[in-house]
Task: structure prediction
Amino acid sequence: MLYSCPIAGFSVDNRVIRINAFLVALLLSAFILIPNIYIIAFVTVDFALRAFNLPFSFLNYPSKMIRKYFYKADMVDGGSKLFAARIGLGFTAVILLAFLIGATKASQFIALIMIAVSLLNTIFNYCLGCHVHSIIHNFQQRKKEQE
Result:
């Protein structure tokens, strides 16, 4: 399978993104231990800010501070990270909705999946958003070729 990342024309610091992913995993772990609407609402709003490429994200500030003191910048194209943020927004919105309708166990299970994905990015620098984009792109290419 071909691997392709979206080229967005803007750069982001990959280390900040990975620290963000770790903070998301921590917050979602807290949500699993203490199911609280404020935790998941906070994470959902943060993903919404990142998904719409707004200049401020609650988790970006501490992530940038941590990166500044411990790591050098690692600039990458922001397209795949924006795509991943939009997928994250979808997941957190489903978690929030499930929690609001009283399906706490379901919301915790989905949060657990999201923790696993966040930790993949944090620990192994494996951006699932890039790979999902690649699959979608290849599927669209094959569909065009069949027409």
User: Anything to note?
Assistant: Helices lie at 14-33, 37-51, 60-70, 79-100, 104-124, 128-146.
